[in-house]
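Field log, afternoon session.

UNIT: design team B
ACTIVITY: writing a sequence onto a fixed backbone
BACKBONE:
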């Protein structure tokens, strides 16, 4: 199965000094890892397009950990 995920906009507020390229790379890698580990969210069986996901508020660290934490919140948001 091939899954293509397009994130048109990601708002990360209140995290100064986050390198966009590092965030993008770690977000992509972690979403891929989580989907491989957990499988495709059930919400994707209901619709091929999800217009928005509210990942809620999270507490983040700096560097690649930001992308990993955001990815976890996004994947969890698929189930809401």
């Amino acid at each position: 199965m091939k899954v293509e995920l397009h994130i048109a906009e990601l708002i990360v507020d209140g995290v100064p000094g986050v390198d966009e390229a590092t965030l993008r790379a770690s977000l992509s890698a972690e979403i891929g890892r989580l989907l491989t580990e957990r499988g495709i969210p059930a919400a994707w069986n209901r619709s091929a397009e999800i217009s928005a996901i509210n990942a809620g508020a999270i507490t983040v660290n700096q560097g690649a950990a930001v992308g990993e934490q955001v990815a976890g919140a996004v994947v969890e948001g698929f189930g809401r």
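LOG NOTE: The radius of gyration is 13 Å.
NEXT ACTIVITY: expression trials, pending approval
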